[in-house]
From TrEMBL:
Location of the region described as Disordered in the Swiss-Prot/TrEMBL record: 1039-1058
The organism of origin for this protein: Stigmatella aurantiaca (strain DW4/3-1)
Residues of the signal peptide: none
Gene3D superfamilies registered for this protein in UniProt: 1.10.150.870, Bacterial DNA polymerase III alpha subunit, thumb domain, Metal-dependent hydrolases
Protein EC: 2.7.7.7
Pfam family, one: DNA_pol3_alpha
Domain PHP: 1-131
Domain Bacterial DNA polymerase III alpha subunit NTPase: 252-526
GO molecular function: 3'-5' exonuclease activity; DNA-directed DNA polymerase activity
CDD domains reported for this sequence: DnaE_OBF (cd04485), PHP_PolIIIA_DnaE3 (cd12113)
Protein's name according to its UniProt entry: DNA polymerase III subunit alpha
Every DNA polymerase III alpha subunit finger domain range: 529-696
Species lineage: Bacteria, Pseudomonadati, Myxococcota, Myxococcia, Myxococcales
BP GO annotations: DNA replication
Length: 1058
C-alpha cells in the first residue's frame, strides 16, 4: 500500500475516482505461522469504505509483522477476521483459484472459491478473468467461467496492468532487471511472456470479453460501490499524561515557569545581565500562542524525551531550526540557547497568524540516538511508534548506469555516458539531453555500443529506456530522522512494514503522506559532532583541569585562543568550518564574537557567496567599507551584521519597524517573498508601503527597502538555526584550541571507519606537533585515547580484534599493567584472545612497550600462548608450579619461569610497516614516504588538494599506489582505477586505455594519449603488486557526482614519473 495517499491525491486532482486496494499474499493450507512451504497465493483486496480501508491497513501491516516468509503473507483465518468492507478478486495466475483452474484441478478450485465466498460479505467475492495474451490464462478463464456458473459467484474482468502503454513493455523488462540485479542476457531472470500487461481501454475490454459482457459490467459495479473518502490533513497528537490536578496547558505553563526560574539561576551564575520581567512577558506571550493553537501536548512530549536523554547522559544538541527562537523551549530545556540576547523570534517558529504544526528537529549523539527512540517506544507502546520510509529514485546519472549494466555494457561505457550529464543539482535526463550536445547527438545520430540476444544496442536505446525509467522508485529506505508517535497502533492511521529480520516498525507512507494521514512527525537526528564533543570531554575529565569536571555548558562564547584558531584556518574537525571554502571565508572574516560565528553559518551558502554579500560583510567588519543602513530606524536590526541583511528574521523585523507589521504578519510576508508570486508580491508591496506611510517613512525609500528585502529574502537564512549550530561550532573550536589532543582523539574515533579522514586527521595532528602512537595493550581502550599529551590508537582500530577480546584485555588489566607477552597470555581469556588476535596486536605495535622487535614477539606467540594456557589450567585446578613457589614471582611473570623469546632479527622496515597497515589500516609508527617528504613537497601537491581543485585544472601529485582495480573495455584494452596515497590522505586516479589506435575521448571531451595511458596501466599495476617507491602522477581534475549528492574529484592520468 506504499503509494496509497500519493495515488489518492493525484486521482482526486485529476477528477478520477480513486479505488484503493492491494494484492495480498495468502499463505497455504497450514497458515502463515508455518515455514515449511514457500507457496503464497495472490488475492486482490479492494476497500469499499472506511471500514474496508482500516482492514486493508491492518492486513498489510500484519503481513509484514507476523507473516513474512519470502513475501509478506496473511492467511484465511486473519482474512476472515478483517474482511468487512472489502471486495476480493481471485487475481492472476498466481491466485489460488486461478492457478487451480489453469491446472484443471477443479476440486481444489471449488473448495478454495467456496472458502473465499464464505469469508467475504455477500456479493463481495468475484472470480477474476483477464486477457493478456498468456495461453495459461486463457485456459484458466474457461474454467473460471464454468466455476462461476457452478457456484453462482460473479465474474469480474480486469487488466493485469504492470505499465501504462504497450510500448512500455521493454522499459518495464529492464526495470525488473534493475530491481533483481540481473542483465537481459541472463536466462534465469524474471520475465513476462507477453507485452499485453498494460492499461487497456474500455473498448479493448469489451472486445476481449465480448462473450462474457457481464464480467466487464461487474467491474463497473465494484467501482460504483467503492466510495472511500480519506480524511487527510488533521494532525492527531498522542496523549501526554499529566498529573490529575492539571490540564496539558496548565502543566506545561508550570514546567515552563519552573524551568525559567532555573535558567535565571544559571544566568546569575554566569554573571549575565538580564531583565527578568522581559523574560516573563515573552514567556507568557509564547505560552498564550501555544495554548490557543492547541500545541501544549506537543511541547510536553518533546521536553519529556529530551530531558530523559539528558538525564541518561545522552548528548543533545542546543537546538536546530527555528525552534531555537522559542523561550518556552529554552525554559523546558528542549533547547539550550537563550533566544533573547540574539533577537531570535518565536514567530519564525510558531506563527499565531498561520496555524501549522510546530516542528522541533532534535540532534542526538549519533551513537545513542536509538536509545531515545527505544525510550519513546516503551513509553507510548512499541506498536504506537515507528520510523518513516523513504524511496530512493532512479535519477539521471544512476538510471543511465543501471540501464547500461542491464544491457550488459561495460562499466566504463555506462560511466562515460553518465558523466556527460551536467553537474547541476536535480537536473533531469531530458534537460541534460537539451543542454549537452554530445547526449543530443547520441539520440539523433545513435551509434552501436553493444549487443543483446543477437540485436544491436545503440546509444538511443540506452537514452530512451533511461528516459522512460527516470524518476521511478528504486528501493525503500528509512528516513534519517523521522519518528512518528501515536496513542494507538500505527496501523490505525497508516499501514506499516518491517524489513526482514528487523523489529523496527516503518510506515509504508513517506513523510508528507504520513502527515497527511494524521500522524505527527518528530525528527530524531544523529549528529556525529555531539559524539565527538562528549568523547573529548570524557577524555579531558579523566584528568580534569583544576580538578573540576568540564561540562559543555562551561565552554565560554568568547575566547581569544579560539578566535586565533579560526583566523589561522586551523578548522579541521570544527563543526561547519571543515570545508576548504568555509575555512578560506573564516580566515578572511576573522570572527571576534559569537555573532560573527552565527553570521558565518548563514553566509557560507551559494546565494550570499555568489551575490558578493560575503565580501561586503567582511569589508564592513574590518572597516574597509563604511557601515550604512537603508534607514536610520533599522540600525538596531542590522547593527550585528554591519548593515547587511543576512537573516530571514531581519526581513521580519524590518517589516515590523517600518511597516508596522506584527511579527506574525511579517512572517507571512517573508514566506510570500520566498515563493516569488508576482500578484502576491504586488499586494504585499502595497501593504508594506501603506504601513511605512503611517510611520512617516518616505515612500521612495520604502519602495527601495522593499526591493532590498525581496532580493535578500532569496539569500536570507534562518537565524535561530544559525545561532544554535553556531554554538556547536564554538564548542568544537574551543575544545580544539584548549585541548587539541583530546579533541583530535575524539575526532579520530568518530571517523574510524573512514580511512581517508583518519589519514588526513593523523597528518593534521602531526603537523600541529602532536604525536600519534600505535595501539598499546596497557594504555589503549576501545577508542582513540589521549595519553600523556599524545594520541593513542584504540584497540578497536585493529582488524580482527573484536569487542570480546578487548573486554578481556581491559578486564585483565585492572590487576595491573601487563609486563610482557608471556604475562599477557597468562592473564587474558584465551577463549576470546586467540592466536589471530595476538598476531594482529603484535603487528599493530600493541606490545612495543616491551622494547623488542615486533618479529621477535610475533615468532614467540605460540610458545607464550602454550605457557599461558598451561598456567590458566593450573590455576583452574588449584595448583601452582613447585618452582614458582620456591622462586617467587619474577619480573616477567610466569611464576618464575623464564620468558623464552625467539631469537630473530626485526622485519625489514617496509615489511614491518606493511604488517602495521594490514593490522590497523594506517601507517602509524612510520610511513614509506617519510624519506621522500621534501622531494614530494617540492614537485607535487598533497593528494587531498585535488578535492579543492577546479574542474579541468592540471595537477601533479605524488605518492604510493595503495590499491588498483582494472577492467577490460569492450575493445579488450585495460583501464584502471587507482588509489594513490601520500602523507595527507588518498585520491582516486583514473587511467584510460587507448581505443582503436586513436587517442581516447575520456567522456568529457578530453583526449588521453593511447600509448602513454596503456603504459600507465601497466606501470601502476607493477607498482601496486611490488609496493615500489613513490611515483609522480600528472593529470586533469574531473568532478564527478556518483551518488547524486556529494561531488567528488578524480584525477585523469596523463603522465607517470618515478
Amino acid at each position: 500500500m506504499f503509494a496509497t495517499i500519493d495515488f489518492y491525491k493525484k486521482a482526486k486532482d485529476a477528477g478520477i475516482k480513486p479505488i484503493i486496494g492491494m494484492e495480498a499474499y495468502v499463505a497455504g493450507t497450514k497458515g502463515r505461522e508455518d515455514r515449511s512451504e514457500k507457496v503464497a497465493h495472490h488475492l486482490i483486496l479492494v476497500a469499499q469504505n472506511a471500514e474496508g480501508y482500516a482492514n486493508l491497513r491492518y492486513l498489510s501491516s500484519t503481513a509484514y509483522m507476523d507473516g513474512f516468509y519470502y513475501h509478506p503473507r496473511i492467511d484465511k483465518k486473519v482474512l476472515a477476521q478483517h474482511s468487512k468492507g472489502l471486495f476480493a478478486l481471485t487475481a492472476c495466475l498466481g491466485g489460488e483459484v486461478t492457478s487451480a483452474c489453469f491446472r484443471g484441478d477443479m476440486d481444489h478450485a471449488r473448495r478454495a472459491a467456496t472458502e473465499y465466498k464464505d469469508i467475504f460479505e455477500p456479493g463481495h467475492f468475484f472470480l477474476e478473468v483477464q486477457s493478456n495474451g498468456i495461453p495459461e490464462q486463457d485456459k484458466a478463464n474457461e474454467n473460471l467461467k464454468q466455476l462461476s456458473r457452478d457456484l453462482d459467484i460473479p465474474l469480474c474482468a480486469t487488466a493485469d496492468a504492470h505499465y501504462i502503454k504497450r510500448e512500455d513493455a521493454r522499459a518495464h523488462e529492464l526495470l525488473m532487471c534493475i530491481a533483481s540485479g540481473k542483465t537481459l542476457s541472463d536466462g534465469k531472470r524474471l520475465r513476462h511472456s507477453t507485452d499485453k500487461l498494460y492499461v487497456t481501454s474500455p473498448q479493448e475490454m469489451l472486445e476481449f470479453f465480448r462473450d462474457t459482457p457481464e464480467a466487464v459490467h461487474n467491474t463497473q459495479v465494484i467501482a460504483d460501490q467503492c466510495n472511500l473518502e480519506l480524511k487527510l490533513g488533521k494532525p492527531m497528537l498522542p496523549t501526554f499524561k499529566v498529573p490529575d490536578s492539571h490540564t496539558p496547558d496548565s502543566f506545561m505553563a508550570e514546567l515552563a515557569f519552573e524551568g525559567l526560574h532555573e535558567r535565571f539561576k544559571e544566568l546569575h551564575h554566569a554573571g549575565a545581565k538580564f531583565d527578568p520581567e522581559m523574560y516573563r512577558a515573552r514567556l507568557n506571550l509564547e505560552l498564550n500562542v501555544i495554548q490557543k493553537m492547541g500545541f501544549s501536548g506537543y511541547f510536553l512530549i518533546v521536553q519529556d524525551f529530551i530531558n530523559w536523554a539528558k538525564k541518561a547522559n545522552i548528548p543533545v544538541g542546543p537546538g536546530r531550526g527555528s525552534g531555537a527562537g522559542s523561550l518556552v523551549a529554552y525554559a523546558l530545556r528542549i533547547t539550550d540557547l537563550d533566544p533573547l540576547p540574539y533577537n531570535l523570534l518565536f514567530e519564525r517558529f510558531l506563527n499565531p497568524e498561520r496555524v501549522s504544526m510546530p516542528d522541533f528537529d532534535i540532534d542526538f549523539c549519533q551513537d545513542r540516538r536509538d536509545e531515545v527512540i527505544k525510550y519513546v517506544s516503551q513509553k507510548y507502546g512499541e506498536m504506537n511508534v515507528g520510523q518513516i520510509i523513504t524511496f530512493g529514485s532512479l535519477k539521471a546519472k544512476s538510471v543511465l548506469r543501471d540501464v547500461c549494466r542491464v544491457f550488459g555494457l561495460p562499466f566504463s561505457e555506462g560511466d562515460r555516458i553518465a558523466k556527460l550529464v551536467p553537474e547541476v543539482l536535480g537536473i533531469t535526463l531530458k534537460e541534460a539531453i537539451e543542454q549537452e550536445a554530445r547526449l543530443k547527438e547520441m539520440m539523433e545520430k545513435p551509434s552501436n555500443v553493444g549487443e543483446v540476444e543477437g540485436k544491436p544496442v545503440t546509444t538511443k536505446d540506452v537514452l530512451e529506456i533511461a528516459l522512460a525509467l527516470e524518476g521511478l522508485h528504486r528501493q525503500p529506505g528509512m528516513h534519517a530522522a523521522g519518528v512518528v508517535i501515536a496513542d494507538k497502533p500505527l496501523w490505525e492511521f497508516v499501514p506499516v512494514y518491517q524489513p526482514p529480520g528487523e523489529k523496527t516498525l516503518i510506515t509504508q507512507f513517506a513523510k508528507d503522506e504520513v502527515e497527511a494521514a494524521g500522524l505527527v512527525k518528530f525528527d530524531f537526528l544523529g549528529l556525529k559532532t555531539l559524539t565527538v564533543i562528549q568523547n573529548a570531554l570524557d577524555l579531558i575529565n579523566r584528568n580534569p583541569p583544576n580538578g573540576k569536571k568540564l561540562e559543555r555548558q562551561d565552554i565560554p562564547l568568547h575566547d581569544e585562543l579560539m578566535w586565533k584558531l579560526m583566523a589561522d584556518g586551523d578548522t579541521a574537525g570544527v563543526f561547519q568550518m571543515e570545508s576548504s571554502g568555509f575555512t578560506e571565508m573564516v580566515m578572511k572574516l576573522k570572527p571576534s564574537c559569537f555573532e560573527d560565528v552565527i553570521a558565518a553559518g548563514a553566509l557560507y551558502r551559494p546565494g550570499p557567496l555568489d551575490s558578493g554579500m560575503v565580501d561586503v560583510f567582511i569589508n564592513r567588519k574590518h572597516g574597509r567599507e563604511p557601515v550604512t543602513y537603508p534607514h536610520p530606524a533599522l540600525e538596531p536590526v542590522l547593527k550585528d551584521t554591519y548593515g547587511v541583511i543576512v537573516y530571514q528574521e531581519q526581513v521580519m523585523q524590518i517589516s515590523q519597524v517600518l511597516g508596522g507589521y506584527t511579527l506574525g504578519r511579517a512572517d507571512l510576508l517573508r514566506r510570500a517573498m520566498g515563493k516569488k508570486k508576482a500578484e502576491v508580491m504586488q499586494a504585499e508591496r502595497a501593504g508594506f508601503l501603506e504601513g511605512c506611510k503611517k510611520n512617516n517613512v518616505d515612500l521612495k525609500v520604502a519602495g527601495e527597502i522593499f526591493d532590498l528585502m525581496e532580493k535578500f529574502a532569496e539569500y536570507g537564512f534562518n537565524k535561530s538555526h544559525s545561532a544554535a549550530y553556531g554554538l556547536i561550532t564554538i564548542h568544537t573550536a574551543w575544545l580544539k584550541a584548549h585541548f587539541p589532543v583530546e579533541f583530535m582523539a575524539a575526532l579520530l574515533t568518530s571517523e574510524k571507519d573512514n580511512t581517508d579522514k583518519v589519514v588526513r586527521h593523523i597528518g593534521e595532528a602531526r603537523e600541529a606537533g602532536h604525536q600519534v602512537l600505535p595501539p598499546d595493550v596497557n594504555q589503549s581502550d576501545m577508542a582513540f585515547g589521549a595519553v600523556d599529551g599524545k594520541i593513542r590508537f584504540g584497540l578497536g582500530a585493529i582488524n580482527g580484534v573484536g569487542e570480546g577480546a578487548i573486554e578481556s584485555i581491559v578486564e585483565a588489566r585492572k590487576d595491573g599493567f601487563f609486563k610482557g607477552l608471556f604475562d599477557f597470555c597468562e592473564r587474558v581469556d584465551s577463549r576470546r584472545v586467540n592466536k589471530k588476535v595476538l598476531e594482529a596486536l603484535v603487528k599493530a605495535g600493541a606490545f612495543d612497550f616491551e622494547k623488542r622487535p615486533r618479529r621477535q614477539l610475533f615468532e614467540t606467540i605460540e610458545r607464550a600462548m602454550n605457557r599461558g594456557s598451561a598456567s590458566q589450567k593450573d590455576k583452574a585446578a588449584g595448583q601452582s608450579s613447585l618452582f614458582g613457589m620456591l622462586a617467587g614471582p619474577a619480573a616477567g611473570g610466569g611464576g618464575g619461569m623464564k620468558d623464552d623469546y625467539a631469537q630473530v632479527e626485526e622485519w625489514p622496515e617496509k615489511e614491518r610497516l606493511a604488517f602495521e597497515k594490514d593490522a590497523i589500516g594506517f601507517y602509524v609508527s612510520g610511513h614509506p614516504l617519510h624519506q621522500y617528504d621534501k622531494e614530494l613537497k617540492r614537485y607535487a601537491r598533497p593528494v587531498t588538494s585535488v578535492q579543492r581543485a577546479r574542474r579541468d585544472e592540471k595537477i601533479t601529485v605524488g605518492g604510493i599506489v595503495a590499491a588498483l582495480r582494472e577492467r577490460p573495455t569492450k575493445t579488450g584494452k585495460r583501464m584502471a582505477w587507482v588509489t594513490l596515497e601520500d602523507l595527507s590522505g588518498s585520491i582516486e586516479l583514473v587511467c584510460f586505455p587507448g581505443k582503436g589506435g586513436r587517442p581516447l575521448d575520456d567522456g568529457q571531451g578530453r583526449q588521453v594519449d593511447q600509448g602513454r595511458a596503456q603504459a600507465g596501466v601497466r606501470e601502476l599495476g607493477r607498482r601496486c603488486s611490488k609496493g615500489d617507491d613513490p611515483i609522480l602522477v600528472s593529470g586533469t581534475v574531473q568532478i564527478s557526482q556518483r551518488d547524486e549528492e556529494s561531488p567528488t574529484a578524480e584525477l585523469i592520468v596523463e603522465d607517470i614519473q618515478s
